[in-house]
Design goal:
- The strands form 7 sheets. Strands 14-24-23-16-17-18-19-15 form an 8-stranded mixed β-sheet. An 8-stranded parallel barrel has the order 26-27-28-29-30-31-32-33, surrounded by 6 helices. A 5-stranded antiparallel β-sheet has the order 1-2-7-5-6.
- Among the domains are: 98 residues, ATP-grasp fold, B domain (D-amino Acid Aminotransferase, Chain A, domain 1); 135 residues, Glucose Oxidase, domain 1 (3-Layer(bba) Sandwich), CATH 3.50.30.10; 264 residues, Phosphoenolpyruvate-binding domains (TIM Barrel); 33 residues, no CATH class.
- The longest helix has 26 residues.
- It is elongated and about 100 Å long.
- The model has no long low-confidence stretch (mean pLDDT 91).
- By secondary structure, the chain is α/β, with parallel strands linked by helices.
- Helix 33 packs across helix 34.
- It contains 34 helices and 33 strands.
- The structure holds phosphoenolpyruvate and magnesium ion.
- Its EC number is 2.7.9.1.
- This is Pyruvate, phosphate dikinase.
- Its cofactor is Mg(2+).
Length: 876
């Protein structure tokens, strides 16, 4: 018989995969002898079994749940559903990886019409008992039965309004009894049955609801954003309730052992007197800073600090803890390694190394590579900020500067962001349903909520600037306006937010890139010592190249030369080249482009100071360069001495039905060898001159794109060699150069051994290779991929995260085949996947020499490469 349920005392921290993060930590804390309300964990395997069994919990699992419940009753001296002294439990999700707020929680389970009376008598606190019951009905209806919360919130608000009071705590037991009658009536009306009174039914329905919540849309989005596999499942923790809402000697809170925004050492958090957990997270009442507890309940605070320090020492990491004080007795409800901003992650890792608690190797392993993105977030341009008008200030919930147009719903924010706008999401408070809109936003502003509110926690995780708890705002979400600081801001108006100071500004304040601090360099230095995979950048201009070097790039893996032709003084020349009808005319136009292209290459070579630079020859279909608006067409006609009609006809003749698979890549050089000649000349002259001027020893790397056949590569290569040798002779130079190719068509991967006979290096163009392997257009796949995530056909976007089983197989095979004929074949990747940690790990595993990604993702790739190397060493 399989074991599906574990009492807390039967588990340990090592059982995270089976018990989930929360369950294994509760077990570990129980083993440490800490004050934990006892309970049991239904395993993640039970969750996967639930899905396998057609969303049913098998009898075997149910029996084990009831057995454990019995033990819990004995431990607590209370009985489930008892009319005198009922056991109440919380039912909470807990996956292997923490997914804050993504799945469901039910509190106060076990109450019904009878037991609530016994509970009131037993505790001598009728108000508290009825408050617990009404909370339970509300949560059960929302989470388990999926009824809208608004019915219940409306009833509660009416009850407060009719008494003329502001807070829930101002309602008496009788008021709450009346609320409960109305809650149950609305439940019956909407669900067509009475609110369930049998606690074992309540429990089983709640466990199912938590299992179900593993697959709710927001959890699916969260998993995709955080690379969490869909088949892990969540565990369910059933834990005896303790009550923070028993009066003024009770309370509940959330605290971190170090500041999760900055990493600063010292307890950080907040609590509410006379409240349950959801009050703190929902941000409806404004919590007190945790340090105030020292004055309110000194003994409790002392014990709290003792346990917090013990937990941090035990896990050797910053802890995020939930606690409840029930009538001056302290309980810990959970602990976990706290989510943190990237600056905080670096600060904490460096401090822990300095405190002798972890090694540099451990520090490198712990940083979430993706989160480094946040460090590179913009700040306001100081001068622009000086001129900015401050509208108000609230909590600095998540650092970074952001400006954009205001939208009041997550859907609008997402829609306008998809249309290319920078958006700021303004909400009364956010909830997990808002996740996609929050993701789309540059910044988030909320009226309600503390530093641990949903908006704050989620924005910090995403690295999105957030200002929360701005009570001064008068907001009308229906009318889509808000007032602040004497201004009225409507939908579509610009505002700017500083998530580091909490200031809210009028208008669109320009931002600039952040300055990277010492902790970053320290961690990166350690990482560079461990990694074997090199990291290059995709950069097309000297400015991008300089940025790449600053961020640690060891070379350029992809310089897309077409981007150089779009500037106003160049585009007419390339258009002339494209529309010329004779080779002479084309050559003439191309000759005019050589000085520009050569100057670009010299600029890049100069910045790269001798580091390798791979220059990719012209790749896109030619029609991308052609004019579309009437004025440009007229200008071009005048310039070329042709009629407008002739230009239009020429443009039409270049039209392709499927340009991505059309006249592009090396096919351009096959049809117009003069393009390859021009580009070779520009590369070679630039390298020779800069080597002479600066004393570098640049070996140009010329890369031919979109090759599918050895003879095709050879044809273009011969043109390059002939021109390169000519330039060398003219310049009396013995410079070396390399010619390689991109592997981005499946046929090239299949025939990589043949192609390697002509190529000195391969760079995997995994954007096109993904497109051509899946048969998904890289420009349009977004339109249907959402449906693939929702239906769980795909868990992640294959254009962002390398599809290791399909596309990855081609890459691995091509690498092997290539090296079988040319053992020292240099291998790299330059598709978008080069900056994705999971894909970087794959590249390390299959023995590529380098990855190349956009400059801002270079640190991510460096860290991911180090983590891949360390992981490999541990598994050896
Ligand atoms: C690729 O296809 O992966 C690639 C890097 O080239 P591009 O994105 O320019 O097509
Ligand atoms: Mg490509």
């Amino acid at each position: 018989m399989n074991k599906w349920v574990y009492l807390f005392k039967e588990g340990s921290a090592e059982m995270k995969n089976l018990l989930g993060g929360k369950g294994s930590n509760l077990a570990e804390m129980t083993n440490l002898g800490l004050p934990i309300p006892q309970g049991f964990t239904v395993t993640t395997e039970a969750c996967t079994d639930y899905y396998k069994s057609g969303k049913e919990i098998t009898e075997e699992i149910q029996a084990q749940i009831f057995d454990s419940l019995k033990t819990l009753e004995e431990q607590q001296g209370k009985k489930f559903g008892d009319t005198e002294n009922p056991l109440l439990v919380s039912v909470r999700s807990g996956a292997r990886a923490s997914m804050p707020g993504m799945m469901d929680t039910i509190l106060n389970l076990g109450l019904n019409d009878i037991s609530v009376e016994g509970f009131a008598k037993r505790t001598g606190n009728a108000r508290f008992a009825y408050d617990s019951y009404r909370r339970f009905i509300q949560m059960f209806s929302d989470v388990v039965m999926e009824m809208s919360k608004t019915f219940f919130e409306g009833i509660l608000t009416e009850a407060k309004d009719s008494k003329g009071v502001k807070f829930d705590t101002d309602l008496t037991a009788d008021d709450l009894k009346a609320v409960i009658v109305r809650y149950k009536a609305i439940y019956k009306e909407k669900m067509g049955e009475e609110f369930p009174q049998e606690p074992t039914v309540q429990l089983m329905e709640a466990v199912k609801a938590v299992f179900r919540s593993w697959d709710n849309p927001r959890a699916i989005v969260y998993r995709r954003m955080n690379d969490i596999p869909g088949d892990w499942g969540t565990a369910v923790n059933v834990q005896a309730m303790v009550f923070g809402n028993m009066g003024n000697t009770s309370g509940t809170g959330v605290a971190f052992t170090r500041n999760p925004s900055t990493g600063e050492k010292g307890i950080y958090g907040e609590y509410l007197i006379n409240a349950q957990g959801e009050d703190v997270v929902a941000g409806i009442r404004t919590p007190q800073p945790i340090t105030k507890l020292a004055a309110d309940m000194p003994k409790v605070f002392e014990r709290f600090m003792e346990i917090a320090n013990k937990l941090e020492a035990h896990y050797a990491d910053m802890q995020d803890m939930e606690f409840t004080i029930e009538d001056e007795t302290l309980y810990f409800l959970q602990t976990r390694n706290g989510k943190r901003t990237a600056p905080a992650a670096l600060q904490i890792a460096c401090d822990l190394v300095d405190e002798g608690k972890i090694t540099p190797e451990e520090a490198v392993k712990r940083i979430d590579a993706k989160s480094l993105d946040q460090l590179l977030h913009p700040i306001f341009v100081p001068q622009a900020l000086k001129d900015g008008k401050v509208l108000g200030q609230a909590l600095p919930a998540s650092p970074g500067a952001a400006s954009g147009k205001v939208y009041f719903t997550a859907d609008e924010a997402k829609k306008h962001n998809d249309d290319g706008e920078r958006v700021i999401l303004v909400r009364l408070e956010t909830s997990p349903e808002d996740i996609e809109g929050m993701h789309a936003a540059e910044g988030i502003l909320t009226v309600r909520g503390g530093m641990t509110s949903h908006a704050a926690v989620v924005a910090r995780g995403m690295g999105t600037a957030c200002v929360s708890g701005c009570g001064e705002i008068r907001i009308d979400e229906q009318a889509k306006v808000f007032e602040l600081g004497g201004e009225t801001i409507s939908e579509g108006d610009y505002i700017s937010l500083d998530g580091s100071t909490g200031k809210i500004y009028l208008g669109d304040i320009s931002t600039e890139e952040a300055v990277i601090g010492g902790n970053f360099e320290r961690i990166m230095g350690w990482a560079d010592g461990y990694r074997t995979l090199k990291v290059r950048a995709n950069a097309d201009t000297p400015a991008d190249a300089a940025n790449a070097v600053k961020l640690g790039a060891q070379g350029i893996g992809l310089c897309r030369t077409e981007h150089m032709f779009f500037e106003p003084d160049r585009i007419p020349k390339i258009r002339r080249m494209i529309l010329s009808t004779s080779q002479e005319a084309r050559e003439e136009a191309l000759n005019e482009l050589i000085p520009f292209q050569k100057a670009d290459f010299k600029g890049i070579y100069e910045v790269m100071e001798g580091r390798p630079v791979t220059i990719r020859f012209l790749d896109p279909p030619l029609h991308e360069f052609l004019p579309t608006d009437e004025k440009d067409i007229a200008d071009l006609a005048a310039d070329m001495g042709l009629s407008i009609e002739q230009i239009k006809d020429a443009c039409t003749s270049l039209h392709e039905f499927n340009p991505m698979m059309g006249h592009r890549g090396c096919r351009l050089a096959v049809t117009y060898p003069e393009i390859a000649r021009m580009q070779t000349r520009a590369v070679m002259e630039a390298a020779i001159e800069i080597n002479d001027e600066k004393g570098f020893n640049i070996i140009p790397e010329i890369m031919i794109p979109l090759v599918c056949e050895k003879k095709e590569l050879k044809y273009v290569k011969d043109i390059v060699v002939e021109t390169a040798e000519k330039v060398k002779k003219e310049k009396n130079s013995d410079i070396k150069y390399m010619i390689g190719t991109m592997i981005e068509i499946p046929r090239a991967a299949l025939l990589a051994n043949e192609i390697a006979e002509e190529a000195e290096f391969f760079s995997f163009g995994t954007n096109d290779l993904t497109q051509m392997t899946f048969g998904f257009s890289r420009d349009d796949a977004g339109k249907f991929l959402d449906a693939y995530y929702k239906t769980k056909i795909f868990e992640s976007d294959p254009f962002a995260r390398l599809d290791q089983s399909g596309v990855g197989q081609l890459v691995e095979m091509a690498a092997k085949k290539g090296r079988s004929v040319r053992p020292n074949l240099k291998l790299g990747i330059c598709g978008e996947h080069g900056g994705d940690p999971a894909s970087v790990e794959f590249c390390h595993k299959i023995g590529l020499n380098y990855v190349s990604c956009s400059p801002f993702r270079v640190p991510i790739a460096r860290l991911a490469a180090a983590q891949a190397a360390l992981k490999e060493n541990t598994s050896k």
